[in-house]
Design goal:
The structure is a homodimer of 415-residue chains. With 415 residues, chain A is an alpha/beta fold. The first copy, chain A, is built from 16 helices and 17 strands. In chain A, a hairpin with a 2-residue loop joins strand 10 and strand 11. Chains A and B meet through helix 1, helix 2, strand 2, helix 3 and helix 6 of A and helix 1, helix 2, strand 2, helix 3 and helix 6 of B.
Chain lengths: 415, 415
């Protein structure tokens, strides 16, 4: 069974915004065994939307539409749905009451006819209540087929999807099982891995797909099994996976844990009741920002000193000037001192420090662009590592943050 | 003249990655007067890719394809292009030499046949040299139509697009002019604005489109004019814009500046030779991270103290415990002290401070979730503002960062 996603909005097609809704919807559908066949972004234009709807209907059983539900003239999704379903708009009293209550609570301007018109919905649509906004979601059935229309505002869409659309889909459709397993490797490129696992790839059962996901210098192998019998899928994934371990066990670093690295680290710290603090130079606060993006981070994250300037490293982080003169500001010695000092200053169990040159211009050091040091201090001592991370500023920072969190994870596991 | 973008990869359709390439490509095309009609994401599946190519060809003159150029079996773009163009793969010696040199320089494993096969390209394709990777870009003409295939790795694609594809497009096609103008408003919602500017919307010339872009509680109005005669477009935009000022001049806060707010602030600080430092609580380092994402930030960014824990505010930022007891940690008084102290401690011209509760759980304060204070300290004094930012953690942080940078921008302009 396939779904398709149609995102509506000129702002997507001129590149003014990145469509993040599709990935969220696809990921959620995947978890309940529904595959997305195609994602299509179209203009705020009735004939174009109609074409996309017709094509999606010819390929998929469930069609998602996001965007175009605002109160203004460039928002034409509801009128287009009426034309598509040969339907007319009627006023929904429940939606109207919700709009009026939102205005009373949050909006200082008086409610207008344009606002009230957001309560107009196709007569055949079931309403999906939008907790966070005035545009309702809509669920329209056509035999075994379903069309779901949601607002394009990400947090409104996410709430609707999670609390209303997914439960309705689970109830309506018998879905196949989908099982993923992701194996992480290190040290070899895509093609070298492909050569070593050719025997596995050539004999994959039809219900299992293998994909290579290269990212930040490492390749993850993702196995996806899909079918009606869960046991068959599990057995198949287990066999293929065991064959992979036979062929490339020496370069497998583990299997992907649930969630992002910052969530994994956060859970470990919470479970072990340990705390952390960071002293960031070239990562500019990004480790801290990533750590605090996890709800509940205040339980284990004490704080961070972003010491971009060398003077900050000396005055606030108390790194001896002598040390900087002798080894330069981008050095293992300075990284180690930064990690130890921030741990002490912030009274944390772990001190994480980064120093390096992300380019494009050279900073306070003579090191070539891309040279970075990362240090983790704990009561067991300091672990410092040097890396060469290429010459692409954004990627150097991304890689640095990821590497620091990986090193931290390893250290936490020693406690 | 229309372009379309086809992004290839199962990882997009299961929601494992967000497609950021399309927005970049669309934005770049827009700047040179080429509109994107549709963006389509399809699976790693030959018949599906062929269908998408055929449909795109029927609608657009330029078709971009990203992804599916890796060395492994799930990468099938080149074979599919051969089938589409009735072509065969031939070995390109220049590409082969490039692959071999990349391996020699950066990769420790020996080069294999699979790597060498990345030098196989459709015989009709012009090669676009990929500075950062082994998969070449390809340019295939079919009469007045062009198909461009690029790798899916964002930084490889961006380099190819910027340095090779755009210049070739500019040379090949006579393009219409596209002019945008974005007017920023405050204080009114979409629908209230729509009512007030109905007269302008009802009489828009055919070559101008008006879009409402609500974001972080404000609405931007984007005017887009498209046509062959630049003067006509400019005159049209000027007239419509002046009519808008007549109708809603009281709620217009300005016109959109070039670039992101962090780039605008960075330029202002550089020009005025001023520096800044931040003390971040609920924003968790995100202001600092955003500021340092701009190349050259070391010229004006001294550093940041992320003081998530109250103890850090006291011990390191030297906020008097007395003040916190009296007013609570989420208060105007504490925000002001944080901003003044960080300015002093870091010896910066501007000190920026944030304190608040982003939820979901209450932290060290009794303030309701969403209550935040932002302060900017300079030699002219301290500006503190209180905001209520809803109850959505990610949005509270985003809004807080944006608001802090806006307040900073305003302060810098006083110097």
């Amino acid at each position: 069974m396939y779904a398709e996603i149609i995102t509506i909005g000129d702002e997507i097609l001129i590149g003014q915004i990145i469509d993040t809704n599709s990935a969220f919807i696809a990921n959620e559908l995947n978890k309940i065994g529904i595959s997305v066949y195609q994602i299509t972004s179209v203009q705020d234009d009735k004939p174009h939307i109609l074409d996309a709807l017709k094509e999606a209907r010819s390929r998929a059983q469930i069609v998602f539409i996001t965007g175009g539900l605002g109160p203004t003239k460039d928002d034409i999704t509801k009128h287009t749905l009426c034309e598509f379903f040969n339907d007319t708009l009627i006023r929904n009293e429940e939606v109207l009451a919700h709009i009026e209550s939102l205005f009373k609570k949050y909006i200082s301007t008086p409610i207008s006819d344009i606002n009230r018109d957001q309560a107009l919905v196709p007569s055949k649509a079931q309403i999906l209540h939008n907790n966070f906004g005035t545009a309702p979601g809509m669920w329209m059935e056509e035999g075994e087929r379903v069309f779901v229309s949601m607002p394009g505002v990400p947090y409104e869409m996410k709430d609707l999807m999670t609390n209303q659309v997914l439960p309705k889909l689970v109830e309506k459709y018998k879905r196949p099982f989908i099982i993923h397993k992701t194996i992480m490797t290190y040290g070899l490129g895509e093609s070298a891995i492909a050569e070593r696992i050719a025997a596995v790839e050539d004999t994959l059962p039809g219900f299992i797909k293998l994909a290579y996901l290269p990212n930040l210098g490492k390749v993850r192998l993702r196995l996806t099994a899909k079918g009606q019998e869960k046991e068959v899928l599990e057995k198949g994934i287990k066999e293929v996976s065991s064959n992979l371990y036979d062929l490339i066990g020496d370069i497998i670093s583990g299997e992907e844990e649930e969630g992002t690295i910052e969530a994994v680290v956060g859970k470990l710290l919470t479970d072990k009741k340990l705390t952390m603090a960071t002293a960031e130079s070239f990562t500019g606060g990004k480790i801290s920002e990533q750590i605090t993006s996890v709800p509940g981070a205040s339980a284990y994250f004490v704080g961070s000193l972003v010491c971009y300037a060398t003077s900050t490293k000396v005055d606030l982080l108390r790194v001896p000037e002598e040390l900087i003169r002798k080894y330069s500001v981008v050095s293992a010695e300075v990284a180690a001192a930064m990690a130890s000092n921030i741990r002490e200053i912030m009274k944390a169990d772990f001190g994480i420090a980064t120093t390096g040159n992300a380019g494009p211009a050279k900073g306070d050091s003579e090191s070539p662009i891309g040279t970075v040091y990362i240090a983790i201090a704990s009561e067991k001592g300091v672990d410092v590592q040097k890396f060469l991370m290429g010459n692409h500023r954004t990627r150097i920072v991304q890689k640095g943050v990821h590497k620091a969190l990986e090193m931290l994870q390893k250290e936490i596991l020693k406690f």
